[in-house]
Amino acid sequence: MSNVVISGTGLLTPPHVVTNKELVQAYNDYADAYNAVNSEAINSGKKDILNHSSCKFIEKASGIKQRYVMIKEGILDIDRMMPLVPRRPDDGLSITAEMSIAAAREALKQANKLPEDIDLVIYGASTSERPWPAVAVEIQQELGCGGYAFDMTVACSTGTFGISTAVDAILSGTATCALIVNPEYASPQINYRDRDSHFIFGDVATACIVEKEQTCSGKNVFQISGRKLETHFSNNIRTNNGYLTRAEPDLTFERFFEQDQFFIQHGRQVFKELLPLICSHVKNQLNKYDLNIGQIRRLWLHQANINMNMFVARNLLGRDPEFLDAPVVLNEYANTASAGSIIAFHKYKDDFISGEKGILCSFGAGYSIGSLILEKL
Amino acid sequence: MSNVVISGTGLLTPPHVVTNKELVQAYNDYADAYNAVNSEAINSGKKDILNHSSCKFIEKASGIKQRYVMIKEGILDIDRMMPLVPRRPDDGLSITAEMSIAAAREALKQANKLPEDIDLVIYGASTSERPWPAVAVEIQQELGCGGYAFDMTVACSTGTFGISTAVDAILSGTATCALIVNPEYASPQINYRDRDSHFIFGDVATACIVEKEQTCSGKNVFQISGRKLETHFSNNIRTNNGYLTRAEPDLTFERFFEQDQFFIQHGRQVFKELLPLICSHVKNQLNKYDLNIGQIRRLWLHQANINMNMFVARNLLGRDPEFLDAPVVLNEYANTASAGSIIAFHKYKDDFISGEKGILCSFGAGYSIGSLILEKL
Known about the structure:
alpha+beta; Peroxisomal Thiolase, Chain A, domain 1; nine-stranded mixed beta sheet
């Protein structure tokens, strides 16, 4: 049992909403235009017709009703289907640093900490804004933190893996108070022309403060009393976006917009392979700490899609979950990768009383699974 | 004082050499062709003439005589100036995983470990091959390791930061034996059309095994008896390569090949700002552990360029260094980012006798500085 705690959390909710209705309208208009332009090839069987998307399908498949985005302009433009993201000057604040800092300020306030109390900043995002300089270092400077900073990623589990990595540093004395930020600027990495995935992700940023119980003066503090991380390789959730694309033979402009440069998912296989891993992961963890699920008041799960979330909750609880057993934010935020389980924790932890326990559990691409047993102090 | 050790190291030296002579010839041919095509614009002052590069300039500025590359085809082709990197199928092994695994096998052998002894894999590269699934998880599976894996980066310091992060995990009990790989597949991220930077980087991969002294059975083992990491933000070493470029307004194919999509460096400012930070970093560390530089047999420094390396060595030693005081591999490998200091350690550690100490020190973009005091057991 460690005496390291999460003493504060923060959330940046982006300024713009894209509803399913808007997204479906844009996709269907795009599909109609595509089908008209390609009617000859479609009729001769050389190209596939694009079928319409629908709000009903999206909500049933995912539980998502809307998503937030940092920049809405361009996403619903059927000639673009991509947010219009102006290039920022190198001496201006990067967009994911800006998102992170907004979430970090709330987390610092909640933890009753000043930026100068922080001596480790971990930036964990599914897709990082740039390779170097590490965005974590930019955030460290902009806030006025000391110590050191680095970027890490293991996709949707970066939230729990980031917290656990900070716990390691604090337990070994390398750091005393850590800020972990999970800025998920997903919208530029979504192919809005792809019916299977155009609705899945939203933009958001979360932040957590992790420190020893002895140094903490926050009022809503959770001890991290168990940690378990595991990974198993799979290509079923993948992107090939990266600097090697540019070096491919016979490169064309269009290559940068092919599906594998965005998000690829073999959903059924993920469902089949990942769900048993998650359930046994958490059960093994409970066994290890001699706990039973009845002693766990809440599951703050990765917000993948409603069916995966319900499957995990039902399997672990052995019954249908009430909303507060495993709160879902998918309807409002959509899938927000590494930030999803942290949003659920941030929004649904204030009703805990001292001694109550919950499990913060992330899962996703990698495959990666991370779970933390959290106990309200 | 920790009882965690580096029990093995490995190095993958890529199969192809590019000499300065070859590189300069290709650059000069490219410049001549560019100047001929653009002669009118150059004469009217609308474009700058491209000056020739030279082997003498490169060697004086950097100490580099050659570099290794994974794929040579395309680099010297003046119509391409970019390695020709075939796209690998998703179910094939990724190129940086392949590089990492070759280095890892040597490190495992040296440490007398089997892949199944490893329960943490950290992939640390300046530029990662893709965002997800994390390449570390692919390496974990391909080798047959257990536990968990993730990718991290803080540019040229990822080697020492990666080792330190593994030490944290081992000290806190999250892992027992870690593999840290630093695959630097730099050549596709170099603008071979840029006279200022075309010669700087080479491809390489290194690997380290980190575990507790109690579990280790290797023969050439170094205790990690001191660690110090720090970061300070700077844009003086930067790239804007990333997924946001594709979302910029008025995007053209050419945009993907502009200088900021490769490597940008304001060398003089880096020299002026970073060198004092490095020197005081190491001096403070020695003070903290009550050591003087006379007790340090060797400096395994980041291989930035010969002038930076000599400045740091001279400043710390208070005299001109002998080769084995601060071994340089720049002449053979060029700058290899996070792998540079690890190559120096890998190649120049076998002559140490029990009780002798050295400092493994990385520095670079971020700015980031990491140093480890290593003592031969």
